[in-house]
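Module 6 notes. Inverse folding takes a fixed backbone as the condition and produces residue identities as the prediction. Think of it as a translation problem where the source language is geometry and the target language is the twenty amino acids. Below is one complete input and output pair. Work through it position by position during the lab.
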């Protein structure tokens, strides 16, 4: 029992219940409400779970008011500038940064699991030629359990670790296969001598007819974006992975559920919405007009990629990726792309306009990631696939933490029922 408590009193009966209060390492204290129903007969109501802590977690901490994002206690700024995606993946899975031997072993394990079973490639032939790549990713990830059913004991730590390595390793291969199916080109096998991001770029853009050289600026930008997306506390897709995993389902099914949740335009599709907004604006000359439309509360137009639901001050990830975004644009020489010129003009005006500055509506990570993906030549509908690829180690870390939590039970939210009261069935020939 916590030393600090809160007393909740039912004013209609005078009955009270004393509820313990818990303090985490950072963030607001939480009230343990599990005894409210048993003592007072009430459920709590919290639409969207915006004020409910559904679990204890050691993985990620966000302070939205002050623009703080920590992976296992490490500031995102340090990791994005100094680390690599696979090192961050190890950190999320194991709780500590690896030493060189541990990192080498982890990288080797992931590298040696990048191949897909040849029969799995046939799955893609069943998709329509213009199927959305998130549909392919979600379906193929879920199907992995059919290939590794002998090592799916979620209570076995070795099985959990092996599965985590497999998923992280195969996500780029699956993603690239979805892309190649989308553009009608032959699949490209992974290359073990390349880095994680370099291998992904090679599988996306190399062709049998010509040699492909990985651009180091593009490689580092992609690796950095994956780091920035690796985890983000109990967001919708992460909560979905935990909820699905709480049933005891296999981890491939839980990760596929996370992919499905991330697909939503209000979640992982936000950077795709940025490019759609730029299409709507159309030309640099139209920017002032659309800025005014964004200020008008009665106008349905909204600036996508500005501000953030969690970060009330600034998105720390955007501060990092803004510099990288400009480096990519300079390196790849995409100055002739009207949409990218439009994005930079929009950024300049919004960062200086008093309306946006006062409201702290700064460009967020979705704004810059969409521009980077566009500069790399990645089609808009593929953006969310790369988001899912980056979020995979976070999903796996959260799933592994959930499995190991002795307090975790199958997720079973309650509801406030507002439907019809009990009524009698009337035969169809007697209904008016």
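Target side of the pair, the amino acids:
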């Amino acid at each position: 029992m916590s030393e600090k408590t809160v007393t909740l009193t039912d004013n209609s009966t005078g009955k009270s219940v004393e509820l313990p209060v818990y303090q985490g390492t950072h963030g607001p204290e939480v009230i343990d409400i599990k005894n409210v129903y048993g003592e007072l007969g009430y459920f709590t109501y919290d639409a969207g779970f915006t004020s409910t802590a559904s679990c204890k977690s050691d993985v990620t901490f966000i302070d939205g008011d002050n623009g703080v994002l920590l992976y296992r206690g490490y500031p995102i700024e340090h990791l994005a500038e100094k680390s690599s995606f696979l090192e961050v993946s190890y950190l999320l899975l194991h709780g500590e940064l690896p030493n060189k031997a541990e990192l080498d072993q982890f990288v080797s394990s992931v590298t040696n699991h990048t191949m897909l079973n040849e029969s799995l490639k046939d799955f893609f032939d069943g998709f329509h030629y213009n199927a959305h790549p998130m549909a392919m990713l979600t379906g193929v990830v879920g199907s992995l359990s059919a290939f590794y059913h002998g090592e799916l004991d979620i209570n076995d730590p070795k099985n959990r670790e092996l599965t985590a390595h497999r998923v992280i390793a195969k996500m780029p291969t699956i993603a690239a296969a979805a892309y190649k199916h989308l553009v009608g080109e032959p699949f490209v096998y992974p290359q073990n001598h390349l880095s994680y991001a370099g291998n992904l770029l090679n599988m996306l853009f190399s062709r049998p007819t010509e040699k492909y050289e990985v651009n180091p600026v593009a490689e580092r930008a992609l690796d950095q974006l994956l780091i920035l997306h690796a985890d983000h506390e109990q967001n919708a897709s992460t909560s979905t992975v935990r909820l699905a995993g709480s049933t005891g389902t296999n981890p491939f099914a839980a990760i596929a559920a996370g992919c499905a949740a991330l697909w939503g335009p209000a979640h992982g599709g936000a950077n795709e919405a940025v490019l759609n907004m730029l299409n709507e604006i159309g030309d640099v000359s139209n920017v002032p007009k659309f800025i005014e439309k964004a200020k008008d509360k009665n106008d349905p137009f909204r600036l996508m990629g500005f501000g953030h639901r969690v970060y009330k001050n600034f998105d720390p990830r955007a501060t990092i990726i803004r510099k990288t975004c400009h480096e990519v644009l300079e390196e790849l020489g995409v100055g002739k792309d009207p949409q990218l010129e439009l994005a930079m003009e929009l950024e300049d005006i919004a960062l200086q306009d008093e309306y946006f500055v006062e409201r702290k509506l700064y460009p967020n990570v979705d704004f810059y990631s969409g521009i980077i993906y566009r500069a790399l030549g990645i089609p808009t509908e593929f953006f969310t696939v790369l988001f899912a690829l980056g979020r995979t180690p976070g999903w796996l870390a959260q799933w592994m933490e959930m499995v190991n939590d002795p307090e975790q039970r199958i997720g079973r939210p309650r509801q406030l029922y507002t439907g019809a009261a009990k009524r009698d069935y009337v035969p169809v020939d007697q209904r008016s």
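Reference fact for the lab report: The chain has two domains: 5-53, 75-407.
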